Amino acid sequence: MQINLHQTHHTIADFNEIFSYLKREEEKGTFENSINLFPELFLCGYPLQDLLLTKEFIRNYHIFLDDIKTWWKEKKRNNSVLLLGGLDYRIENDIPAQIKNVVLELSDHKSLEVIYTKCLLPSYDIFDEAKYYSPGKEASIWTYQDLSFGILICEDMWFSPHYDFNPVEKLHEISKDKTLNGIFNFSASPFHLGKENSRMTRAKEISTQFSNIPFYYVNRVGSEDEIVFDGASFILKDQTISHKALSFKEDLITDDLQDAKLVDQKCEESKSKYSFETLFDTQLCYDTKPPKLLKFDDDSARTALHALHLGIMDYANKIGAKKFLVALSGGIDSALVLTLLGLFKSSEQEVEAVYMPSQFSANLSYEISKKLCDNLGIKLTTQPIKFLHSAIRNSFKENFEALDGLADENIQSRIRGALIYARSNQTGSIVINTSNKSELAVGYSTLYGDSVGAISPLGDLYKSEVFELCRYINKSYQDIIPEEVINRPPSAELREDQKDEQSLPPYEVLDAILEGYLSYKYDMKDLIDLGFNVDDVAKVVRLNNLSEYKRAQFCPIIKLKAKSFGFGRRIPITKKF
Known about the structure:
β6 (about 140-145) and β7 form a beta hairpin. This protein is an alpha/beta fold. It contains 18 helices and 22 strands. About 35% of the residues lie in helices and about 20% in strands. It is elongated and about 85 Å long.
């Protein structure tokens, strides 16, 4: 027999799409003489959140399961078995009294019967599984004919002291003096930079504890709002990755079964502590005082591009968007966003850039915007805001008082926000946000102005990383981004001779402080002890805490890091700090 790992890509709750995948693989003969592994919650999608509590979803899910059972019975198959991630409901008085995250077996012997329930339900960062699911209480060895495999679902493989149950240890206990052919892990594991290596390292450690038996890891692909699933499924044999699926794309990997191994009596202690806190490592370099943000190297840039490609295009495809709109400023952030769309869009999709100069916009900003659009083959429309700005200033002076300072700067940004959404209504386009993580962290953006958009590609990239990604793109795509935008000092161009560094510390300092504060939870004293300037630290922390209300109203951010703004970081707006 063979083992097939199905790295699938589909839309949450699209039962027709999921069923179509099963039927296509059946027609190809993939299921013949094979054990087929499908990702965690393959039968419905992940994460479901409150959707799994709605009556319509529950009804459609159970109809779908019945359809699969009927389809499976209609044809005689040769030694085929499917292990499918899904849900198990207990309904009382028309209400879900209990929901479990399970693996179900579909074979000649079992018709979608539960063979394992997920034990560890994460409730950190983006996860809230303990809110919805009831945990399993037992480890499980699944047998089929003369084959035996240990089963784990995603989080079950991660050792962490904050859980009171260790599925890996329990699995080892029940497998003593038994022969196992391997361990199966069914995952819907979200992506962040460095996550793939963490998975493989942990798989090697578990395999070692079980006398180096094979480890089969199947993961899903796709983007759900801000969360990206990268796939990267793999098969580990003798501490070597023998098979690896593509990253960020649907794939199938196949392996011939090996002879079973007798599990050792002794279970070696874990070498690493894989608690949720240790997964959120700081990205700071301590070779210098004060520390600097680690360089965004070519590997990180390449992987980030793949993740952004999937995140942007999956979002657009799943909401049915064919047209994109970008407010192009002549700055590096909007230049990068437009470049991403230019590189990623399909022949059926359209991208339009709108340049909206004010009286403070430099000629260079237009020259950069025009050159970039020419390089990308994207339409550029110029819509000046000078006269609209002047009319609003005159109206305010007549009815209130003269607009000046921050109010005058922000009204320019809000005029642009209104215009870009008027164009969005005209053309049926979705606006792509251009803010970066540094700006979001310290509130250096205008609500209903430059903060508008349907989704944010750069919201998990610090400004210094935006520069690094632009340089990588130019190295890979023949200097498609004008060098002038990379070399010019960052500016919002909302007043005469404005520069970002007039309001903020230099980005190499700002970003390093933010990384320590946001990702590694350093407090002000820690940051000052590390060598950062007292005034810089105080200013950055103060601005971050004052800006929570802005982030609460921000659009979804494509998650690239272990700790990101968005769903995984929930901080009260009203608080004393």
